[in-house]
Amino acid sequence: MENLLTILISLLAIIALVQLVRIFELATKLKGQQEIEISDKENHYNGLALLIVGFGFVLFVAYSFKLWGHLILPESASLHGIQIKLLWDTTMYLILFVFFITQPLLFWFSYKYRGKKNNKALYQTHNNKLEIIWTSIPAVVLTALVVFGLKTWNNVMVPDTSNAMVMEVYAMQFNWTARYSGEDNKLGDANYTLIGGINTLGVDINDSASSDDIITREIHLPVDEQVLMKFRSQDVIHSAYMPHLGVQMNCVPGMSTQFAFTPIKTTSEMRKELKNEEFDYVLLCNKICGSAHYNMQIKVIIETKQEYLEWMSQQDNFNTLISR
Amino acid sequence: MSNQDHHHEETFISKYIFSLDHKMIAKQFLLTGMFMGIIGVIMSAFFRLQLAWPDEGFPILETFLGKWAPDGVMDPNIYLALVTIHGTIMVFFVLTAGLSGTFSNLLIPLQIGARDMASGFMNMLSYWFFFLSSLVMIISLFVSSGPAAAGWTIYPPLSALPQAMPGSGLGMTLWLVSMSLFIVSALLGGLNYIVTIVNLRTKGMSMTRMPLTMWAFFVTAILGTLSFPVLLSACLLLIFDRSFGTAFYLSDIMIQGEILTQTGGSPILFQHLFWFLGHPEVYIILLPALGITSEVVSTNSRKPIFGYKAMVGSILAIAFLSFIVWGHHMFMTGMNPFLGSVFTFTTLLIAIPSAVKVFNYLTTLWRANIQFTPAMLFSIGLVSTFISGGLTGLILGDAALDINVHDTYFVVAHFHIVMGLSAIFGMFAGVYHWFPKMYGRMMNKSLGYAHFWITFISAYGVFYPMHFLGLAGVPRRYYSNTAFPMFEGLVEINELISVFAILGVVAQLIFFFNFFYSIFRGRQSSQNPWRSNTLEWTTPVERIHGNWPGELPTVHRWAYDYSKPGMDEDFVIQTTPLKDGEEEGH
Ligand code: HEM
Ligand SMILES: [Cu+2]
Ligand SMILES: [Cu+2]
């Protein structure tokens, strides 16, 4: 019944609209105006609207950084983040510069050169000098940007990791597990065929490097120390993303990936900075992986070396775990 | 042999269904594309409801989604399915087939002065493969395990293993079948477009006299024929992995407690194959829109397009570069950092021809006499979104910067603005501009204005704020943001986006109403309503088989002689011979 009524009302509305448009069209016909020609009035109002809406948009973009700026992630809590920030700011200023020139020009020209009956446009086909200039300028600017970008990328992705603490983050639908390499700073071999029972990561018992490995459900990292994080996945592709630390890397089954970084702010320092006592770092999944993709997370705690060692001493190593 | 001599009797079926006439096939593409568009856009409204009000129950969701939205609250799996099908439909069905299929078919023979496509039969097949493909995609919405849900990029192993998610069952099989049919359609169409443009240009229509629309469609067709086969192979290998136990993309997997036997494959291989199509695909979508815009902007500015040669050069440069940048979608896959450097370099290069295009559009508007038809408004909208979206590409294309925004809402904002909005605007511009050529009637102008203004404002209203979600670290393809305290402050901005999204979706009703109303009731069009130079406006309003009643037209000049000094009118049709001593523009 209700549905029928909805359908009826919609039908009536459509018919009413059709009639309305017809009346409208008849009226323009009576006024003797050619429907297809755009009148000066229409050109004027649309041009004006473009000017107002266009400049409104451009101004809003400027204002939005004030309005929503606080939503943006705080300054990176890891060392490489400082370098990236420099590149980010440079690129961002460049983008905004171009944006604030081209968009206003577009809307200004639209208004300024709105059509009028007796106007005639300029016949102008090309201008080689101008075109060479505005091809070369982007070329030069982009070359600089590419060089800067590649330098940063290489510094971030290919750092010296000879003294880094090695650990592993293991992904599966829909949770994360951490494995620390222990005193030898060497992860024991692992293989998906060995997964079973308590050995959820498939660590090879026979590899001597595995006996001191430590498996945890939280990630703890000492501040100011470089960590080389390795990633594996058990089932589908996941992606380990730590937004505050500026770290992201896919976890791909059958493949080992890695990311090296140095956290520089402890959790409690970050809490103070954000004036939020509940704040915690988090590692979340950033590659679609199934129904609970939106809730695949593990807590990350960055603390002083002392706190870290204390926490570590309370964890069981792999040997103890297996023999239990 | 000219076609007007033998008026063979046309039945309803040969005229409207299995038509060989390019103009009818264009309309078939357009209507099918519009139908798919309605589905895709309604889906986006649904998941925007979920994202803004995650705990609220919406009866409308239960009505449409049934058991997948108990009490009107969406299930996470169906959220992913909706996002996946929305993306697939928008990218392939609406903006590839719907946009390129419609306007390549309609305009190529008309603008180069040909009676029809090189092969009308292949052209018909192209449409019917597309139709079948759409049908299969729609059927996949009704299978009990749900449609494909691994994202429109369908990365294996997620898409390869039915155990991984319900959407990777029958739904994914149908997705792959549908896409394979789609690719056949795209190839049949593309080859036809290329051959037609190369061989059937009328007398005087040299390549350098072609309108920019023709250049855009020509290059688009080349892109498609070179890259779609790679996606087809990627899909076939995936079908093998799914059904015949091969291991192209699978290795070392344990899922749901089961150890799979496949070893030696690589999930990353799929990504290389996928994006080898996927990036050119972005330009397969965008170039036709830019081509349409060039035509519309020049006509309605009453001014030649500025820098014709540079425009052609940029199209070619963009097309060439688009084949060597695919890796920018894979910076975070653990690829060798050196490879990342190469792709950063090639990607940022694309900014140069793109900037040239923008400057040329701006200069075309300078000292113009702009006629604000709805098509012109949408074209100006396109230039605006192309700038806004293109600029953020400088961030995403720079590997070092991508680390922190890859796969976040920043990406969603970027590609919707630069590809989604620009192409949709281009498509609307095309429909408003060439509607008279398709139906012999005019669309209502005032409704067109209302449609543009609401759409333009809500489009930025939806996608501009999404940049901030991305900068706040919100990943894409998240069913809900409620699982993380760090996203608590984002409720309001999410609601704002959804309000604009719903407004934008509803505004499309104006367009659909206008479209169908005008087919039957619109004012009769004159032969050349926009006072345009190109050949399509020399054909009669009645749209006959073979396009021109007598001889094919002969071309004497380029397409952009608007407001040329010394001429009686502010336009000079391409068939007008040069006057004594007149110089041809270029
Ligand atoms: C009414 C207008 C639209 C709205 C409100 C909308 C909204 C969205 C949102 C919010 C997402 C991301 C969801 C997520 O990642 O969880 C999305 C995904 C997507 N949209 Fe749209 N969209 C619209 C129109 C379009 C258009 C015109 C295109 C054409 C290119 C498009 C193509 C896509 C694609 C390719 C995806 C990615 C799907 C995936 O992640 O697999 N959308 N859309
Ligand atoms: Cu995951
Ligand atoms: Cu790309």
Average predicted confidence as pLDDT of chain B: 93
Number of strands of chain A: 10
Just give the CATH class of the largest domain in chain A.
Answer: Mainly Beta
Beta-strand fraction estimate of chain B: under 5%
Strand order of the largest sheet of chain B: 1-2
Largest sheet of chain A: 5 strands, mixed
The number of distinct structural domains of chain A comes to 2
Q: How does this structure look, described?
A:
The complex is a heterodimer of chains A (324) and B (586). With 324 residues, chain A is α+β, with helices and mostly antiparallel strands. Chain A contains 7 helices and 10 strands. Chain A has helices at 2-30, 40-68, 79-112, 128-157, 267-274, 305-313, 318-323; strands spanning 165-172, 175-180, 214-216, 219-222, 227-233, 238-242, 247-251, 257-261, 281-285, 297-303. The model of chain A has no long low-confidence stretch (mean pLDDT 91). Chain B has 586 residues and is an all-alpha fold. In chain B, helix 4 packs across helix 14 and helix 6 (170-199) packs antiparallel against helix 7 (212-243). Chain B has helices spanning 12-17, 22-52, 59-65, 76-112, 120-140, 170-199, 212-243, 267-301, 308-321, 337-349, 351-365, 374-396, 399-405, 409-439, 445-463, 466-471, 491-521; strands spanning 254-255, 258-259. The two termini of chain B are 33 Å apart. Chain B is globular, with a radius of gyration of 24 Å. In chain B, 62% of the residues are buried. Chain B has one domain (22-247, 266-538): Cytochrome c oxidase-like, subunit I domain (Cytochrome C Oxidase, Chain A, Up-down Bundle). Chains A and B meet through helix 1, helix 2, helix 3, helix 4 and strand 7 of A and helix 4, strand 1, helix 8, helix 9 and helix 10 of B. Protoporphyrin IX containing FE binds at residues 41, 44, 48, 83-84, 86-87, 90-91, 95, 151-152, 412, 416, 419-420, 424, 462, 476-478, 501, 504-505 of chain B.
